[in-house]
UniProtKB/TrEMBL annotation:
Domain of life: Eukaryota
Name of the protein described by the UniProt record: Galactose-3-O-sulfotransferase 2
InterPro entries attached to this UniProt entry: Gal-3-0_sulfotransfrase, P-loop_NTPase
Assigned protein family: Belongs to the galactose-3-O-sulfotransferase family.
Keyword list, A-Z: Glycoprotein, Golgi apparatus, Membrane, Signal-anchor, Transferase, Transmembrane, Transmembrane helix
Lineage of origin: Eukaryota, Metazoa, Chordata, Craniata, Vertebrata
MF annotations from Gene Ontology: galactosylceramide sulfotransferase activity
Record GO biological process: glycolipid biosynthetic process
Pfam families: Gal-3-0_sulfotr (PF06990)
Sequence ranges of Polar residues compositional bias: 625-646
Length: 646
């Protein structure tokens, strides 16, 4: 029927029957002749698509199975801010290298020195720790730290490297902790070469670490699972990236500023370690430690794994991936660090840490509306939303930074804590304690075979007293309960820290070396600092040395003594350079061409901001996408080109 229901109109609209038959026949003919191949091709494509879908599902379920296996074995991921340094360690004599076998091999001492036991108890009381907590872990800790044998590893690696740059770290007798990046979540990120990104140092002849596994990532993988991962992802290379080999050991440290530094500069009779991974945790004095590492590497022209595109962090809070590191060019290059790398990190008492976090991260959703820390803790159970961005800062931040689930909600918190602890122990050679910063530096110095001067530092990133609050005992207890996982982790490593002091340095020697370190620091403070100490940011004269301010915290900085010059000025300035500025300076030093391109792209962006909105949109979009998408930036090997104005 037609629109108006008239049958005659319907017949007219359809047309004569013959014509209709002809159309159908013609259509069939066309389908069967001219377009036949297209139809066949479409069908083949459809079948292929379906097959790929099925394959995808099968592969996904295989991945899930492996992931589940990891989850069952409680393998964790770490969110790392990694710094690494390396050098061809050829400067020491064979006799010196041999002695490194004696560097800190940890022996189990059954008979605990009475004085040290008292000292530890006193320290624990100061930190609010119940005596004995975590001691049940000591035996295991001893086993694991002994396994690391850092001194021996260094010796083996160094010896191998002296043979014309060829080395085989597999010959080192002890396996170092291993981390595999991206293997669990292959994202298909291929980075293309960005020729200009490769510093000349990266192009020098490289030693091969034939058995070194990828050594820097947030995903801690049990070595026994590595083979199955390799089967799943054959692209996982067996050789370390040759980009890693680069920097030559130009041992030309800046002259110590003050006289009488001979003791501090004394070269220990072992091989200094320069392959280092530092997991930078939050609000734990980590910036001060980073400054130590930066100065050490900077003065010796060592190479750092710096974030792509001059970012300040390796894309935290994302899990670490090798392609976040500037200079890593291909997906195949997954190994950021050699196997003999020394892994360490730092913890802080979660009570004082939370007080600091609450002020610094006041703007995160969890803290935003809280009138006080106590108010937050009282109401947190009802209002805390884990899924809101940045709320991870509010709870068990230590656990989170190490890559663990930071919520206390799991049924068996004790088990979760024990698994976290044993994973950290397996992965790290040394865990420092921020409350015992100077003692930590002595342990670090000994473990790395560095000199006292190498670990001297000024306190960085420190809040002014104006933005500190005194906590009541009740609030402290609430903090411990809220951060129970962190509390357990911290308590354990606080205990093992002192055990390590006993076993390696001994109380008397530790006291002596800490005194030396403090003496050296006060000498340097007198030499370097105008006011002799830290000042509020408003009083920092040189804006290039002003620390980054955030949240409700007032972060203090330093003024250099006027009249300093030459190497002394350089040394003093390095000591007080805040983290962001130092990272940026090292990036420029390692990647001068890229840094210049970034500067010009930033200038361009600034110029664009002055343009009318329509002109601006495209350039700005392009710039943002390149800067925020590392892989795309890599693939394109380019930064936004200057946009011509219409
Ligand atoms: N040498 C030394 N000894 C003891 N404590 C120290 C040291 N250096 C820094 N700090 C304190 O560490 C806090 C800053 O930590 P971070 O540098 O890790 O912070 S950040 O996450 O990088 O922003 C910050 O703590 P708060 O002042 O409580 O916020 C610093 O005062």
């Amino acid at each position: 029927m037609g629109d108006d229901g008239n049958p005659q109109r319907v017949a007219e609209s359809v047309g004569p029957v013959d014509g209709g038959m002809w159309s159908v026949r013609r259509l069939r003919g066309v389908l069967c002749s001219h377009l036949r191949f297209m139809w066949i091709a479409l069908m083949v494509l459809t079948v292929l698509c379906v097959a790929m879908q099925i394959l995808g599902v099968v592969r996904q379920s295989r991945n899930d199975k492996v992931l589940k296996q990891f989850a069952n074995e409680k393998l964790f991921s770490m969110r790392l801010t990694i710094e690494f340094q390396e050098t061809l360690a050829t400067t020491q004599q064979p006799s010196e290298r041999r002695q490194s076998d004696h560097v800190p091999l940890i022996e189990y001492i059954q008979d605990i020195n009475q004085g040290m036991a008292l000292r530890r108890e006193r320290n624990n009381q100061q930190a609010g720790i119940i005596p004995g907590v975590g001691l049940q872990q000591d035996r295991r800790a001893r086993k694991i730290t002994t396994r690391g044998k850092p001194g021996r590893l260094t010796a083996a690696a160094a010896a191998a490297r002296t043979e014309e740059g060829k080395s085989d770290v597999s010959k080192s007798s002890q396996p170092a902790p291993r981390f595999v990046s991206e293997v669990l979540r292959p994202r298909g990120n291929h980075f293309a070469t960005r020729g200009s990104a490769v510093s000349p140092r990266f192009t020098q002849p490289k030693p091969q670490h034939s058995s070194a596994l990828l050594a820097a990532s947030q995903r801690g993988i049990n070595p026994k699972n590595l083979e199955s991962l390799r089967r799943m992802f054959p692209s996982l290379p067996r050789t370390t990236s040759h980009l890693l080999s680069a920097a030559s050991a130009n041992i030309a440290a800046a002259e110590p500023a003050a006289a009488g530094a001979a003791v501090a500069r004394a070269v220990p009779a072992c091989q200094p370690k320069t392959h280092i991974v530092f997991l930078k945790t939050h609000k734990t004095a980590s910036s001060t430690i980073l400054n130590i590492l930066y100065r050490y590497g900077d003065s010796r022209n060592l190479t750092f794994a710096l974030p792509l595109n001059k970012h300040s962090q390796l894309f935290y809070p994302m899990y670490f991936a090798a392609h976040f590191v500037e200079g890593f060019r291909s997906r195949a290059v997954k190994r950021v660090m050699p196997e003999d790398s020394f892994y360490f990190s730092v913890l802080r008492n979660p009570v004082s840490m939370m007080e600091s976090i609450f002020i610094y991260y006041k703007s995160i959703p969890a803290f935003h509306k809280a009138r006080s820390l106590d108010d937050f803790l009282t109401n947190a159970a009802h209002s805390y939303n884990t899924s809101q961005t940045n709320n991870h800062y509010a709870r068990n931040l230590l656990a989170y930074d190490f890559g663990f689930d930071n919520n206390n909600n799991v049924v068996d918190i004790e088990r979760q804590a024990n698994l976290s602890i044993s994973t950290i122990e397996k992965s790290f050679h040394l865990i420092l304690i921020s409350e015992y910063f100077d003692e930590s530096m002595i342990l670090l110095k000994n473990a790395l075979c560095w000199s006292l001067d190498d670990v001297v530092s000024f306190k960085l990133n420190s809040r002014s007293n104006r933005t500190r609050q005194v906590l009541s005992p009740g609030t402290m207890e609430k903090i411990k309960a809220w951060n129970l996982l962190d509390w357990k982790i911290y308590s354990h490593f606080n205990a093992t820290f002192w055990r390590r002091v006993e076993e390696t340095v001994g109380e008397a020697e530790m006291r002596r070396e800490v005194a030396q370190l403090q003496e050296r620091r006060s000498q340097l403070m007198k030499t370097c600092l105008k006011e002799g100490g830290a000042v509020d940011p408003s009083q920092v004269k040189d804006s290039a040395l002003k620390p980054f301010q955030y949240g409700a915290a007032v972060i203090q900085g330093y003024n250099l003594n006027p009249g300093l010059s030459g190497a002394t000025r350089k040394q003093c300035q390095d000591l007080i350079t805040p983290e962001l500025q130092y990272t940026s300076a090292l990036y420029t030093k390692q990647f001068p061409e890229l840094a210049a391109k970034l500067v010009s792209s930033q200038k361009q962006a600034a110029a664009n901001r002055a343009m009318p909105p329509v002109v601006r949109t495209r350039t700005e979009r392009q710039r943002r996408s390149l800067l925020s998408n590392p892989n795309r930036a890599y693939r394109n090997q380019t930064y936004p080109s200057p946009t011509r104005l219409p």
